[in-house]
UniProtKB/TrEMBL annotation:
Keyword Transcription: no
MF terms in GO: UDP-glucose 4-epimerase activity
The keyword Chloroplast is annotated on this UniProt entry: no
Pathway: Carbohydrate metabolism; galactose metabolism
Name listed for the protein in its UniProt record: UDP-glucose 4-epimerase
Cofactor(s) it depends on: NAD(+)
Gene: galE
UniProt source species: Leifsonia williamsii
InterPro entries found in the cross-reference section: Epimerase_deHydtase, NAD(P)-bd_dom_sf, UDP_G4E
Pfam name, any one: Epimerase
EC number(s) per entry: 5.1.3.2
Length: 320
């Protein structure tokens, strides 16, 4: 039996694939390579290039492989861009999830781990976000992830789907020098690109009510994230009790200023970040509690900030 990883050629999905293999669990990957890379899929792993909007392709994947469950990582993940492309975002994240769930039901596959997002919370008015913090998404992306959770919930009621959704903020680092974050919108690639081009990285606002005046966020290592995806899958496989949602959070967070200082230290490239105005709507601090996930999903922060930056930088250098 194998687990199907949608988006398994992407940054997060490829780490999930490797985490499964390290546990001796077979995997199958489907990815349309819109943001993923076929070379991120390990040799010997069955790979299907295509979109999960393609129902007949999904039927073939389930027919040709003994699939026991799905880790659903595929999606359009750019919150800012989703404001300009709401229809595309909903198609990729809502319609595609519905097509996937229909194919799973037809194939008799009744377990799914959903890659959700802390974007479902919007701008919470609490320092520590828990799973019960009110949901108030502020972008089509965040809305689409919350709808995805609702789809799982409703399919659970209607058809007995066993499911859990993992919410997290900023995923960084690399678990293997051959795997890297290639997003044009994420902080680490943006900072590394600026340094490689001889530009100075930029901080948006240094007058927040935080220890160094810069925003504080959860930054979690992608390999730690992957471990908990597999732990959730194993819990579903064993039919053990599982919560419908979990936050994968650090509990304390890291400031943008701390990240910039650590990047300078790790790369050996001295720089003083440019300071721009605050971005509208950026809260001073958003940090999530990971207590429930620590209890059930082997969740913990196994990497320091230095290790997060160093692993990401080494992967960037390896690709140069």
């Amino acid at each position: 039996m194998a687990w199907l990883v949608t988006g398994g050629a992407g940054y997060i999905g490829s780490h999930v694939v490797r985490a499964f293999r390290e546990e001796g669990i077979d995997v199958v990957v489907i990815d349309d390579l819109s943001s993923g890379h076929e070379e991120f899929v390990p040799s010997g792993v069955p790979f299907y290039r295509g979109t999960i909007l393609d129902g007949p392709l999904l039927e073939r994947v389930f027919a040709e492989n003994a699939i026991t469950g799905v880790v659903h990582v595929a999606g359009f993940k750019y919150a800012g861009v989703s404001v300009q492309r709401p229809l595309h975002t909903y198609e990729q994240n809502v319609t595609a999830t519905a097509v996937l769930l229909a194919a799973m039901q037809e194939a008799g596959v009744d377990a799914i781990v959903f890659s959700s997002s802390a974007a479902v919370y919007g701008t919470p008015d609490v320092d520590i976000v828990t799973e019960t913090t009110p949901k108030n998404p502020e972008s089509p992306y965040g809305e689409s992830k919350l709808i995805g959770e609702w789809l799982l919930r409703d399919q659970g009621i209607a058809a007995g789907l066993r499911h859990t959704s993992l919410r997290y903020f900023n995923v960084v680092g690399s678990g293997d020098p051959s795997l890297r974050d290639t997003s044009p919108h994420n902080l680490f690639p943006l900072v590394f690109d600026a340094l490689a081009d001889g530009r100075t990285p930029r901080i948006n606002g240094t007058d927040y009510p935080t220890p160094d005046g810069t925003c504080v966020r959860d930054y979690i290592h992608v390999a730690d994230l992957a471990v908990s995806h597999v732990a959730a899958a194993k819990r579903l496989d064993a039919r053990e009790p599982i919560e419908p949602v979990y936050n994968l959070g650090s509990g304390d967070g890291v400031s943008v200023g701390e990240i910039m200082a650590t990047v300078a230290e790790v790369t050996g490239i001295a720089f003083t970040p440019e300071v721009g105005p605050r971005r509208p709507g950026d809260p001073a601090r958003i940090v999530a509690s990971g207590e429930l996930a620590a209890r059930d999903l082997d969740w913990k922060m196994r990497h320091t900030l230095q290790e997060m930056v160093r692993s990401a930088w080494e992967a960037r250098q390896a690709a140069s």
